[in-house]
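so my prof wants the structure for this chain in the tokens format not the other one, which i didnt know existed until like an hour ago. anyway here's the sequence
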Amino acid sequence: MENELHHQSATSEKIWATLDRIAESQEKAALEMKEMREEEEERRREEDKWEKKKAHQRMIRWERLFNAEWSLLMESLLEGDLVRLLQDWGIAVLYTQTSTRGCHNGECYEFSILAETGDEVVLVEVEKTLRSEDVARFLEKLGKFTTYRPLYRGKKIYGAVAFLKADKSVQVHAERQGLFVIRATGSSTSTSIVNNTEFVPRVF
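here's what i got, hopefully its the right format
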């Protein structure tokens, strides 16, 4: 009888020990599964972030290309109207050229359109959508123009901004900085300088 009870006790201990091992194994497996799910979720989040980043970079490249193509088209369209527009303001343009560019002491520059009368030069910045930061950047370039091109020192240098779209506040800001403000639509009947009639251009 004692042997039978001892055998049953030993068997019971083995069973409980086995159940403990099973429970421990299940906990370990559950923990490993949780870690695997977390790692997979983290990997997917990283992949999503990477894909979103790539898509954003592609969008920026396409937007820059789109804006560059628009600017080139606007330059071409505006160049033909510019002589008439400036003549209405008493600036008798002799010739124009687009994409005036170069480098000076390692600093590169570009002006969308250059119009010259002989004693006067009008530099035009063309933007699809004109923003205040575009005006600030253009003013900085204008201030350096005769440094970039010493040949033009002694001439009157004027600036103009041309655009398809711009907030009224930006147009007012540009005019207050002494710039001609040109609303460009690609049609000679509606492309116009929109400055006030009392406007006096700033000499840079």
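also thought this was worth mentioning. The beta strands are 95-104, 107-116, 120-130, 156-166, 180-183, 192-193.
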